[in-house]
């Protein structure tokens, strides 16, 4: 053991070896000064609050939610403006009344075979759009036909389903912010 180490306590002897190793590393690999680019802090420019949402904008925003996708697919084929649909929705309580306010006659049939409808698609067949809704809960398909003669052909099950969808949509839409998922989602209660 070198004479210099003999005079050190056992605790310091271990540190001497470490510090000697550190000094050798410093000699072999001298520290380099790295230039770092610190990001410049830029204060965000205060933006004015967004303009108030209009009724048609709120109607479209709420309708675009995932839970209203089936309803939106029917609405998209009605060729009516959001303002007109919103006005009709406010004054009705059912899917059939809503369609009647938009000028569509509802024809309820016992059943509709989806595949047969596609062959009649177009002005010659009278069907403007085939709107299927695949219900995984009942393993059935609810089909709605939007016709060129301003009628909607559908089944009673479809009418019942869209009655519920329309009621839920109206509830959310009539809420002040249009953000209701449950009873009090906005307020957190």
Q: Note the beta-strand portion.
A: 5-15%
Question: What coarse outline follows from CA principal-axis ratios?
Answer: elongated
Q: How can the largest sheet be summarized?
A: 4 strands, mixed
Cα Rg: 35 Å
**What is the mean pLDDT?**
79
SS summary, helix count:
8
The helicity comes to: 40-55%
Quaternary structure of the protein: single chain
The ordered string of helix (H) and strand (E) elements is: HHHHHHEHEEEH
- SS-based class: alpha+beta
Q: What is the β-strand count?
A: 4
Ranges with pLDDT <50 over ≥5 residues? 178-189
Q: Ends: how far apart?
A: 75 Å
What does this entry show, briefly?
The protein is of the alpha+beta class.
């Amino acid at each position: 053991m070198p004479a210099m180490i003999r005079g050190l306590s056992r605790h310091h002897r271990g540190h001497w070896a470490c510090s000697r190793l550190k000094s050798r590393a410093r000699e072999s690999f001298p520290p380099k000064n790295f230039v770092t680019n610190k990001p410049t802090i830029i204060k965000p420019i205060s933006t004015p609050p967004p303009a108030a949402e209009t009724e048609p904008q709120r109607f479209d925003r709420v309708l675009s939610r995932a839970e209203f996708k089936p309803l939106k697919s029917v609405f998209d084929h009605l060729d009516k403006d959001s303002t007109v649909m919103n006005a009709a929705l406010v004054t009705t309580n059912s899917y059939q009344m809503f369609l009647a306010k938009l000028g569509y006659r509802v024809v309820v049939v016992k059943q509709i075979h989806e595949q047969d409808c596609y062959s009649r698609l177009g002005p010659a067949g009278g069907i403007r759009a085939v709107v299927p809704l695949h219900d995984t809960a009942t393993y059935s398909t609810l089909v709605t036909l939007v016709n060129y003669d301003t009628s909607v052909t559908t089944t009673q099950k479809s009418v019942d389903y869209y009655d519920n969808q329309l009621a839920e949509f109206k509830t959310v839409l009539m809420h002040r912010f249009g953000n209701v998922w449950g009873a009090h989602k906005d307020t957190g209660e």
